[in-house]
TrEMBL record:
Keywords: Membrane, Transmembrane, Transmembrane helix. The chain crosses the membrane at residues 12-34. Pfam families: MlaD. Residues 47-144 form the Mce/MlaD domain. This is Mammalian cell entry related domain protein. It comes from the Bacteria.
Length: 359
């Protein structure tokens, strides 16, 4: 007879086979054995609650790695606590290119530590950030902060270290820690007590009573003003209506006046046109008369010049005229004497002039 198989051995064999299959799926399915990865270490001083193994490591919003280990490190000297976090970076997720856009060959990419060193020198820093406000889950964000100094914690540990900077919540908590909370609380307490004393003081009650009276006075004043404004508004409306009527009457009277003015303007334009037509030849004749007058004046000037030459002191004609006038004057005297003689002795015309001593 054949020997019967042991069920326990068969069950163990089946369980081992299933375990190997699951392990193979987990290992080979994730592809980690065939990936080129680089482990780095980061040191955080604050709480990392919400950061879990398997958490994401992002660079500029793109996942480039995974959190692999989270530990707690205690320094015996000063009892300070640091939290080293080991992450696994996948360099293949960061495509390196030349300045002209061409990709860098794979053999050059193998110097990942050197590349990380260059990145750190140019300001690469790690920071914890909130991934979900609902679950409180954190992730590690890598980015360049060239203005933040690099702070290295450990050396010679076998992994390149990426410096960290405090998270926004951590920086805010440190700011709150630096605030003089006790002093601020004391001042707030004093302010609240002062407000309470002011509210319960009799002065405030008097102020409120005076304010209430002032409000009542203002209301009465507004009521009085309102009662006086209503008749004024009615009168104003009547005045506006009268003004409108007056404007319409003025408009009705102005229209015929305007028409008459327009007719007068038209007639005036016609008269001016007629006068302009008649004045134009008169102006022409006047211009000719002026030219003739100018010629006559010029001729008169010439005549006066000739007369002046004729009657000058050294003129021969003037001298002869003077001599002729003298002779005429002598002849006139002789005629006067003869006329006197004839008047006294008319007979002398017949007898002639008597000689002296004769009869």
């Amino acid at each position: 007879m054949s020997r019967q198989a042991n069920p326990k051995v068969i069950g163990a064999f089946v369980i081992g086979a299933v375990a190997l299959i699951v392990a193979g799926i987990l290992v080979f399915g994730s592809g980690r054995l065939f990936k080129d990865t680089q482990k780095c270490i980061l040191f955080f001083e604050g709480s990392v609650k919400g950061l879990n193994i398997g958490g994401t490591v992002d660079f500029k919003g793109v996942r480039v790695g995974t959190v692999r280990e989270i530990k707690v490190q205690l320094d015996r000297k000063d009892l300070s606590v640091k939290i080293p976090v080991i992450v696994e970076i996948e360099p293949d997720r960061i495509a390196q290119v030349h300045g002209d856009g061409r990709k860098v060959p794979k053999e050059i990419k193998k110097g990942t530590k050197k590349i990380l060193t260059v990145f750190v020198e140019r300001g690469l820093r790690a920071q914890l950030k909130m991934q979900s406000f609902v679950t409180g889950q954190l992730y590690i964000d890598l980015d360049f902060y060239p203005d933040r100094p690099a702070r290295f914690v450990a050396e010679g540990i076998g992994y390149p270290e990426i410096p960290t900077i405090p998270s926004n919540l951590e920086a805010l908590s440190k700011t709150f820690e630096k605030l003089p909370l006790e002093e601020i609380a004391g001042k707030l307490t004093s302010a609240i007590e002062g407000i309470e004393r002011f509210i319960n003081s009799p002065d405030l009650k008097g102020i409120l009573s005076s304010s209430h009276q002032a409000v009542n006075d203002v209301r009465a004043l507004l009521h009085s003003i309102d009662s006086e404004i209503k008749p004024l508004a009615v009168n104003l409306n009547g005045a506006v209506d009268d003004a409108r009527k007056l404007i319409r009457n003025v408009d009705d009277q102005v229209k015929p006046i305007s028409a008459g003015i327009q007719g007068t303007t038209t007639d005036a334009r016609k008269v001016l046109t007629s006068v302009d037509r008649k004045v134009e030849p008169l102006l022409t004749n006047l211009d000719e008369a002026v030219r003739a007058t100018r010629g006559a004046i010029a001729q008169a000037d010439k005549t006066l010049a000739a007369v002046e030459d004729f009657t000058g002191e050294r003129s021969a004609v003037r001298y002869e005229l003077i001599q002729a006038l003298k002779e005429l004057s002598a002849a006139a005297r002789s005629l006067r004497v003869m006329a006197d003689t004839l008047e006294r002795h008319p007979e002398a015309l017949l007898k002639g002039k008597e000689k002296q001593g004769g009869k």
